[in-house]
Amino acid sequence: MKRVFLFSALVLGSFFGLKAQNVDVNKPQLSEDVGLTPIKKGNWMVGGSLGSMGYSFEGKSFNINVNPQAGYFVSDGVAIGLSLKGGYQSEKDKKDLWTYGIAPFVRYFFPEGSSSTGRFFGQGKVGIAGASGGSDVTFAAGLGLGYAHFITRSVALEAMVGYDYSKAATASASAQNGLGFSLGFQIYLPGQGNK
Question: Would you say which domain of life the source belongs to (predicted)?
Answer without folding.
Answer: Bacteria
